[in-house]
């Protein structure tokens, strides 16, 4: 399967950030992997214009479960698609923490994304307390079961394993720990979706940098990365793209 390097800009970036995208496209006109950048909603249309005709895809960072309506400040999946997005990150741990998003809500948003033709990048991951308590596999299994609706396919669904304690901290699980979780995710998805699960891309996210990317990508069942901080600079994200 083609691997995926996905960048999550979070609440970072104004028009000046377009120069980084221009630099990324110039340096990686034909990458071996699929590239995805998920900027703030204000930049989706401009990044989509820049990326037109290139190997770079553009995504949102969240969408509402409803198609439209009285939801001030929210964005519908169809609006993301209309702006030029092909993907949307859903259930990121910062959304789960800052907005109390539940697995049920993430599943509803995922169905809304699919109804609009967007690929959902569904995030799961344990807290540090959960890892210390030895419940990591149970936690990610429960999140997977609750957040991914029936109907998931290799084409419409990407799973991102992001340990909460590794995001933005410079810390990562050990390579065997990452491999253990990814094997568990693949087995859990296969039990539910059969052979289709073999083609679903499983991304690792949490302090992926140029220095650790190659080792992480060499692990079985790691089909790419969801990258936060290191996706903001073309040189760093480009180095991660080149490692895939
Ligand atoms: C993220 O925001 O999804 C993420 C993985 O962040 P970072 O790479 O900065 O840890």
Give a brief outline of the structure.
The chain has 244 residues and is α/β, with parallel strands linked by helices. The chain has a single domain (4-243), classed as Aldolase class I (TIM Barrel).
What keywords describe this structure?
single chain; 244 residues; alpha/beta; TIM Barrel; 8-stranded parallel β-barrel; 10 helices; 40% helix; binds phosphoenolpyruvate; cytoplasm; Triosephosphate_isomerase; Triosephosphate isomerase; glycolysis; Triosephosphate_isomerase_AS
Structure write-up:
InterPro entries: Aldolase_TIM, TIM_sf, TrioseP_Isoase_bac/euk, Triosephosphate_isomerase, Triosephosphate_isomerase_AS. Belongs to the triosephosphate isomerase family. By secondary structure, this protein is of the alpha/beta class. It contains ten helices and eight strands. It has an eight-stranded parallel barrel with strand order 1-2-3-4-5-6-7-8, surrounded by seven helices. Strand 7 (about 200-205), helix 9 and strand 8 form a beta-alpha-beta unit. Helix 1 packs parallel to helix 2 (about 45-50), helix 1 (about 20-25) runs parallel beside helix 10 and helix 7 (about 135-145) packs parallel to helix 8 (about 175-195). The chain is globular. The N and C termini lie close together (about 10 Å). The model has no long low-confidence stretch (mean pLDDT about 95). Bound molecules: phosphoenolpyruvate (PEP). Phosphoenolpyruvate binds near residues 162, 167 and 227.
């Amino acid at each position: 399967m083609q691997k995926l390097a996905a960048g999550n800009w979070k609440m970072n970036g104004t028009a000046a950030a377009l120069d980084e995208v221009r630099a990324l496209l110039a340096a990686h006109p034909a990458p071996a992997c699929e590239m995805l950048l998920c900027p703030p909603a204000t930049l989706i249309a401009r990044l989509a214009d820049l990326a037109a005709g290139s190997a770079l895809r553009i995504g949102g960072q969240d969408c509402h479960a409803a198609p439209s309506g009285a939801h001030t400040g929210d964005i519908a999946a169809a609006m993301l698609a209309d702006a030029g997005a092909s993907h949307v990150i859903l259930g990121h741990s910062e959304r789960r923490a800052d907005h109390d998003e539940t697995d049920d809500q993430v599943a509803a948003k995922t169905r809304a994304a699919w109804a609009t033709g967007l690929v959902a990048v569904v995030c799961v991951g344990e807290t540090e307390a959960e890892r210390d308590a030895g419940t990591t596999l149970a936690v990610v299994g429960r999140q997977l079961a609750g957040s991914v609706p029936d109907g998931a396919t290799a084409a419409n669904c990407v799973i991102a394993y992001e340990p909460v304690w590794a995001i933005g901290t410079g810390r990562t699980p050990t390579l065997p720990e990452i491999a253990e979780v990814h094997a568990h995710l693949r087995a859990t998805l296969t039990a539910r979706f059969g052979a289709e699960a073999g083609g679903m891309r499983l991304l690792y996210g949490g302090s992926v940098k140029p220095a650790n990317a190659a080792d992480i990508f060499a692990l079985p069942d790691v089909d790419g990365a969801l990258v936060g901080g290191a996706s903001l600079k073309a040189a760093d994200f480009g180095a991660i793209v080149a490692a895939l």
